[in-house]
Structure formats: C-alpha cells, structure tokens
TrEMBL record:
Keywords: Hydrolase, Magnesium, Metal-binding, Nucleotide metabolism, Nucleotide-binding. GO terms for cellular component: cytosol. It comes from Pseudidiomarina maritima. Signal peptide: none annotated. NCBIfam families: RdgB/HAM1 family non-canonical purine NTP pyrophosphatase. Mg(2+) binds at residues 40, 69. This is dITP/XTP pyrophosphatase. InterPro entries: dITP/XTP_pyrophosphatase, ITPase-like_fam, RdgB/HAM1.
Length: 198
C-alpha cells in the first residue's frame, strides 16, 4: 500500500484530505504522528508555501508528502488576507479571531461588494529532492456573510456564503463541501495527475 504523509497541522484539512484519499487505497498518515516543528511559511505565494511544507515533511519522515496551502481572497481587500489567512488577526490567533477581524474590516462594505474566493494549492513531493512535484490549484467563489452561521468545517467556513445554496460553508456536510470546495477540486486534480504519473 502506498504511504503518504499529510504535511499539515490543521485537523480540519486532515479530515477533508483523508476523506478523499482513502478510497484510493493510500495509507495516509498525518504529520502529527511524528513530532517535528512545523515548517516556516516564508513564501509569497500559496505555491511556494505548499512546496516548503511538503519538502519539510518529506525531509523529516522519509515519505512522499502532500501539503496544502490555502486561504481566502476578498475582492474588496485586493485579495487579502490571501497567504496570510491563518495569521490575519496576529501570530497566535484562532479561527474566531480571524473571522472577527474580517467582519470588522468589511463592516462598511455593502452585501453586493463582498465577493471572495477560497484557494487551495496542493503540492506533492515523492521525496524531499523531487524536482517535479505535482502542483494543483482549486478555487471556490462565494461571498462574505455579515454574521457567522453553521458549525461544520473550520477556518472561515462560517462566513463563506454560497449564494447558489443560500447557506455558508459551515452549514454543509464534509461530503457536500468536498464536491464544491477549492480543496475538493484540487484533490480531484491531484488524484488524476498522480495516477497518470504512476
Ligand atoms: O476550506 C476552508 N474553509 C475555511 N477556511 C479555510 C479553508 N481552507 C483554508 N482556510 C483558511 C484557514 C486558515 O486561516 C488558512 C489556511 O492557512 P494555512 O497556512 O494553509 O493552513 P494552517 O496554518 O491552518 O495549517 P498548515 O499550514 O499546517 O497546513 O485559510
Ligand atoms: Mg499554516
């Protein structure tokens, strides 16, 4: 069975990534099974950070590694918080702090001006020195709600409004979110590309 380390410390991502990879018969192991410090996300793009995180995990485990660098880009904020989504409200902040900062920043932005997109870049390195990583990018368009709603998911899900469904991403099941989300799209591309490269 093919073994793979998920190069993320985010439990919400682990749930979503495992759900889509396990049916393909991989033995997927979260990096929390080891005890190394997280990679520093010093890149200026999702692509750079995803590669840094995957390389770091491959170095520490000796296994092929899949990393996810993702975030929210708000049109009215010229794409912010973008790659800084996890640290938007400060270095030690949590999801709720980030949501509060976002809603406060957008408090004078009219409902029809609140377009946003989630982005997910997956980077897969077969080993730490792999010169041809597989890189996939998924995007999900929506709006920023004015108040949080829903309990599912993680991160900015409670304020990511999906106009077609009249609900937020936090009101979808993992399976429903997977069909639409940036991460689901990137994962489906990844599975195809990996199978084509085997
Ligand atoms: O589906 C999503 N639903 C809601 N929020 C999301 C989603 N996908 C990414 N996000 C947010 C969470 C975090 O604020 C940032 C990712 O930051 P990012 O550095 O990639 O992840 P992280 O630090 O939580 O874990 P790690 O770097 O160990 O993978 O974007
Ligand atoms: Mg991170």
């Amino acid at each position: 069975m093919q073994e793979l380390v998920l190069a993320t410390g985010n439990k919400g991502k682990v749930v979503e990534l495992e759900a889509l990879l396990q049916p393909f018969g991989w033995n997927v192991r979260p990096q929390s099974a080891w005890h190394f410090a997280e990679a520093e996300e010093t890149g200026l793009t999702f692509i750079e950070n995803a590669i840094l995180k995957a390389r770091h995990a491959a170095q520490h485990t000796g296994l092929p590694a899949l990393a996810d660098d993702s975030g929210l880009a708000v049109n009215a904020l010229q794409g912010a918080p973008g790659i800084y989504s996890a640290r938007y409200a400060g270095p030690e902040c949590n999801d709720q702090d980030n949501i509060e900062k976002l809603l406060d920043t957008l408090k004078d932005t009219a409902p029809e001006q609140r377009q946003a997109s989630f982005h997910c870049v997956l980077a897969y390195l077969r080993h730490a020195n792999d010169p041809t990583p597989i890189i996939c990018h998924g995007r999900w368009d929506g709006m920023i709600a004015t108040t949080p709603q829903g309990e599912q998911g993680f991160g900015y899900d409670p304020v990511f409004w999906i106009p077609e469904l009249n609900c937020t991403a936090a009101q979808l099941s993992t399976a429903q979110k997977q069909q639409l989300s940036h991460r689901g799209q990137a994962l489906r591309q990844f599975v195809k590309q990996l199978q084509a490269s085997l």
